[in-house]
Amino acid sequence: MISRRSLFILTLALAVAAVPATGQLGAQGKGTIKIATQTPLSGELAALGEGMKLATQLAIEQLKGPVEKAGFKVELVPFDDQAKPDVGVANAKNILADKDILVVVGHLNSGVALPASEVYKEANLAMVSPANTSPLITDRGLPNVSRVCGRDDVQGAVAAQFAKENLKAKSVYIVHNKNQYGQGIAEFFQEWSKKNGVNVVGFEGSEERANFDPILTPIKAKNPDVIFFGGEYPQAAPLFRQAREKGIKSKFMGPDGVDSSELLKLGGDAVVGMHYTTVAGGVKEYPKAKAFADSFKKKFNKDPEPFAAQSYDSTAIALKAIEAAIKDAGGKMPTRDAVTKAVRKVKHSGITSAVEFDDKGDPKKATYLIYQVAKKWDDRKMVKRLEIAAPQKKM
Amino acid sequence: MTDVPSPSGPTTGAVDVAPGLQRWRSHPVLLNVLVAAALFGSAILVWVVPRSIIAFMAFQASLLVIYLLPLDVRTKLAWAAVALGVLMPMLGTHNGYYMEVAIQVGIFVALALGLNIVVGLAGLLDLGYVAFYAVGAYLWAIFGSPQAAKFLPIEGVFPLPAPWFFAFLILGLAVGAITGILLGLPVLRLRGDYLAIVTLGFGEVVRVLANNLDKPWNITNGPKGITPISRPPLFFEPALSALGIDAPPSVLYPLLFYFMVLGIAAVVIVINRRLEGSHVGRAWEAIREDEVAAQAMGVPLVRMKLLAFAIGASFAGVMGVIFSAKQLFISPESFTFLESIGVLAMVILGGMGSIPGAIIGASAVTILNLQVLKGLSLWLNELRNSGLTVLGYNLADLPSQFEPAKYERMIFGMILILMMIYRPAGIFPARRRKLETYHRGEEPAA
Amino acid sequence: MDWELLLAIFPQVVMDGLVLGFMYALIALGYTMVYGVLELINFAHSEIFMVGGFVGVEILLTMQATGWLDTFNPFVILIFIILMGMAVSGVLAVVVERVAYRPLRGAPRLIPLISAIGVSFFLQDLVRLGESLWRNAFYLTYPSFAAFNTRIEIAETIDFSVKSVIVVVASLAMLFALQFLVTRTKLGKAIRAVAEDQPTASLMGVNVNRIISLTFLIGGAMGGAAGVLFGVQYNTINPFTGFIPGIKAFTAAVLGGIGNIPGAMVGGLVLGLLEAFAASYLSLLTGGAFGAEYKDIFAFSILIVILIFRPRGLLGEVVRERT
Which of A184, A228, C103, C259 is the most exposed, fewest CB within 10 Å of its CB? Predict the structure, then answer.
């Protein structure tokens, strides 16, 4: 009995010893400023989250000069939000506890960013988002939240307009995956289509991941010109593939959630020729990002994923804001409050676009791209590029 | 960490817990010094090194020390009060993350104790327990935010003012219990394993409803979730400022939630202990051991089962209300089957039917999830980035698919299998079960 | 309301429902056989089914990489992967029984059920980890065969693919073979004897442990075959594919009368048709107010209703309470 218990305690002790103390013993002197990332570093979306983290790391290394000259060390603290709201909130509390963290770069998922940003707000800690496209992110009017990317309401409308004007769609059928992101963008697609005289012949949501028969049967009977899927590639690919197998001839469209080479791997010939919209796009669409892509590849031995370049820009903005805040504080360690205010004033000519924030934290002009999938993922073609201002809050 | 050591009877408490430490019973001073050293030592460590996970785990372990040492019940309770009532809030204010961990542990302790009544005492396997938690959470989320105005034709009432929160705590309790009875009425006549599947189905139905009831009437706002949800009023703020303490809401809210969760968890523990020893508790255990015999002895089967379901569900309902207020944002994602299994794993790990077991199981699993696995993942990540070479193998090549935090299902699965095979009574077996087995002179057996 | 449209898709919906129903029936067999013999809900059966699907996709992807896929007749390949899926899943089911259920025989009923849930979770993540390391992805697709995707047109609005026919024919063949095995052979008699009364069967010279292993082997093999057919039909598979079809198949088994082989088939078909109709028609009938997602609610409500009013299922035998 006693031996088993001591064994248990021993195991526990070993487990404890194996856990690293993630924090250093306080800050050395008063001179360390930290930038945190919160992205999924594990799970299905780990590749995107990891790319965002690495781009932030790269940006800090390349651009920390001015802040270092002012006498501060700059460090990156990566957090893994696992794409789960609960984890994101717990991490956010952990971030607040580290007084040296002055800016958060993140998240990937709007569903995580929404509750986590409420926590940042408690300390007025700035969050610069490279990837959250939900309109709610900025429409809540939080003073500490800004983003460098576009919004789903615009993206949905851009997609719908493209369907009408370029694909000459008279009727569309909208399917979504019943999650926050997918349903959101599907609704914006529907709204624009209805307003502009495109016949929305169906609007259906399903969490199904394999058997799309019951959804496709009515679609086949209604024979729409375009099928728009609001969601991500693991569902988009089998849906479109089964649709073609059933003999459905409609054109396919999707949002940035399908922007992954996996789409082509899973969907095969069925997705070749389909169109998708995105707020990020490949690095090659941004001439200024060439140097970034090269140094990223050199340092980490892989190509930057979507949203990596945006993370680089977000970090650059964060560093500029910190620099300005240090200046205002007379060379002393700036407060979170000061940095948050400075973020909104930054005018930054980034590698993806020139960023300047409006009073909600949206970029005054955001980029939206439309791609067409080709036989090889790298050959996918950008067919349209738009710069659109964020809509004013409707309330 | 809110594992309040449950007051065990003066004769069995120490004997049960740690027979090996028995001989120290006659040195209470020494023991108290030991506790004080562990508690304050680790607390100071956390204070000095606020970001070290090891320091915080030492503090958590010192709470376990209080429980394990053969002190008398009053002394244990006093120490627990010091640790949880004074030290923990101080440390939690110093580092808000630990407060979050403590609050989550408290929530799961209450959930595990609720499920413990259903599964552990009455022997009814409920695989959809998180549904009741969801019902409580949505109850306050809908009426404590502008959401209610979207389907009720009343203007300007919603969100309800913050003080309503306390009324909703009671309402959450009631609605949880009613949902439990509504589910229980048709299905409790079923045999055990059918019941398990039906409850699983019920859990899925509640989640699917939450995900789909944004049309035709927008009740739950579907997958987009509900935000912002009102928080309870900081009613003690004037009192604090009268004392000259000025703290921002970002400090006061976690404190409020912490003490609410602590208080409710304590109440739940007391109710559990009262029920366990009462005729109701004995009736449940009789049902668990042998339904036919229990019925023959005059135990009203359906009524007793319904009672177990209702009480278990009501705890989840209350905690749901607190969860939604704490989180400010809820969506159906938080109420998946995995959450139900997580709570079940807590109960089983600690020991089915055992109150200290459920408490320690909940603490262990939550800490495992929030701290240990995440810490390990981050550590692996750092190792990979450092490009260290071990035995000629470059760690940078370590596949990024190895993320301990992402394999919680596998860990839960192994816990469930191994516990069932080697220790079905759990880490801290239920007292009655233990008494029975000791009586027969056996180890707790499969 | 567009009655013409509703009528036009009717035959197609029936076909979709039949395909889904046969799939449920095949999976349900695993639940039914194990339950008949051990009175245990083999919760891990949905993962046995999922593993079958992965065996199929792994073989096909390997063949594709080596170029063999085009050299053999697709029907030969199909039979081969079904057999392989059956073998691996059957053996896995036996292993699971030995490791996680046999040590618990005689324990209270909840104990093996919880252990089964543990196995189910463990297998899901094990496959995910394995595939993540091996292919760097755990959503996999079946390579498609032109021969299976050919559509047979019956009328203007009615056509179905060759693979749907394959699913139906293969399921029927396996169901009849199993029914024959259980009712007409000596082995079947032994299985029925063990289901009826283990001690007595043992006294009559039946090796109970061996029969129980065999039951798991057969049930697992059926699940594996269903996994491969599922992959061929819907051409996508991931480690969590098994969960929902597993629950539905269990519902089908209960619906038809658990422990009863024709019952599993009837239950599966009823459930499959019901789901197909709910998913295709609900949205059309209610003008979009209620969508396809309510199909799961339908399935679970039916489970509850059946359990209350006809606990023995549609074709149920008398199930004795064993305590």
Answer: C103
Instruction: Please tell me whether residues A243 and A375 are part of one structural domain.
Output: yes
CA–CA separation, B423 vs C102, rounded Å? 15
Where would I find the beta strands (DSSP E) of chain A? Answer: 32-39, 73-80, 101-106, 126-129, 145-147, 171-176, 199-205, 226-230, 251-254, 275-278, 347-349, 354-356, 366-372, 381-388
Checking DSSP bridges between strand B389-390 and strand B393-394, what pairing results, if any?
antiparallel
Its domain, for residue B2, covers 1-94
Which residues does B190 contact at the CB level (< 8 Å), separation at least 6?
Answer: B198, C307, C311
Q: Do B446 and C321 touch (CB under 8 A)?
A: no
Query: CA-to-CA distance for A123 and B251, rounded, in angstroms?
Result: 10
pLDDT values of chain B reduced to their tens digit, one per residue, 446 residues: 444 444 443 333 334 455 566 666 677 788 888 888 888 988 888 888 877 778 888 898 888 888 888 888 888 899 999 999 999 998 888 888 888 889 999 999 999 999 999 998 998 889 999 999 999 999 999 999 989 888 888 877 888 888 999 999 999 999 999 999 998 888 777 776 788 888 988 998 999 999 999 878 899 988 888 888 999 998 888 888 888 877 788 788 899 999 999 999 999 999 999 998 899 999 998 988 888 899 898 899 889 999 999 999 999 999 999 999 998 888 898 898 888 988 998 998 888 888 999 999 999 888 887 777 777 776 776 676 666 666 666 666 666 566 666 677 788 888 889 988 988 888 888 766 555 554 444 444 43
Nearest CA-CA distance, residue C300 and chain B, Å: 6
Does residue A225 fall inside a structural domain?
Answer: yes
A327 domain residue, yes or no: yes
Looking at B94, B124, B152, the residue that finishes a domain is: B94
Instruction: Let me know if residue A17 belongs to a domain.
Output: no
Residue B444 is assigned to a structural domain of this protein: no
Residue where a domain stops, chosen among B75, B94, B113: B94
Query: What are the respective helix, strand and coil percentages of chain A, to the nearest 5?
Result: 50, 20, 35
What's B235's domain CATH number?
1.10.3470
Same domain, residue pair A261 and A346: no
- Chain C residues interacting with chain A (CB cutoff of 8 angstroms): 5, 8-9, 12-13, 16, 19-20, 137, 139-141, 144, 149, 151, 157, 159, 161, 230, 234-238, 240-241, 275-276, 278-280, 283-284, 288, 291-293, 295
Within a domain: B445: no
DSSP at A196: T
What are the distances in angstroms from CA B155 to CA B148, B151, B273? Answer: 10, 11, 46
A196 in C contact zone (CB under 8 Å)? no
Q: In what order do the strands lie in the sheet with A126-129?
A: A73-80, A32-39, A101-106, A126-129, A145-147
Count of all residues that appear for chain A in the document: 395
β-strand partners of C237: C140
DSSP annotation of A27: -
Q: Rounded CA gap, C26 and C248, in Å?
A: 12
Total count of domains within chain B:
2
Residue among A336, A389, A383 at smallest CA distance from A362: A389
Q: What amino acid occupies position C245?
A: P
**Does residue B268 sit in the same domain as residue B407?**
yes
A211 and A160, same structural domain? yes
Residue A263 included in any domain: yes
Q: Residue B228: is the preceding peptide bond cis (ω within 30°)? A: yes
Domain limits for position A197? 153-278+370-388
Q: How far apart are CA B15 and CA B22, in angstroms?
A: 7
Count of domains observed in chain A: 2
| Interchain CB distance below 8 Å, B403 and A43 | yes
* CB spacing of A19 vs B57 below 8 angstroms: yes
Q: Is residue B446 part of a domain?
A: no
Give B160-219 as a DSSP string.
Answer: PPTTHHHHHHHHHHHHHHHHHHHHHHHHTTS-HHHHHHHHHHHHHHHHHHHHHTTSSS-S
